[in-house]
Specification:
Length: 126
């Protein structure tokens, strides 16, 4: 009888004890996609400052007119992107443009500037 009471008590405690929460966590990194809408072959480089250290992403080459590239594993925070001419990397179209990265993927169109033919602009795609 004592064994049966002990077993029943153990079963009741196991059922009543709350299980450890397994909370779903979103991804700690996101992806940023780019589409080239210019008449230039482009090279895009980005970096994020994390704990005072600059974490660079890959160099992404894009062909002119609808070339695409993706920067994966981007940590949340401010990401700085620089757009170069792929044929002449000394020519910079856009320097260290800040993009605020939150907890969702982004897609950015790179368009020619309406006011400056030697520059490009970023537009968010929906």
């Amino acid at each position: 009888m004592r064994l049966a009471i002990t077993i029943m008590l153990a079963i009741c405690c196991a059922i009543a004890w709350p299980a450890a929460d397994a909370r779903a966590q979103g991804p700690s990194t996101v992806a940023v996609g780019f589409r080239n809408r210019t008449d230039y072959n482009l090279l895009v480089k980005g970096y994020t400052v994390v704990n005072g250290v600059q974490r660079s992403g890959p160099s992404m080459a894009m062909k002119k007119i609808d070339g695409m590239a993706f920067d994966t594993s981007v940590p949340s925070g401010t990401r700085y992107y620089t757009v170069y001419d792929a044929n002449n990397p000394q020519r910079v179209y856009l320097r260290e443009f800040p993009v605020f990265v939150q907890n969702r993927d982004l897609f950015i169109n790179i368009m020619p500037s309406q006011t400056d033919p030697k520059a490009v602009v970023f537009t968010l795609s929906k």
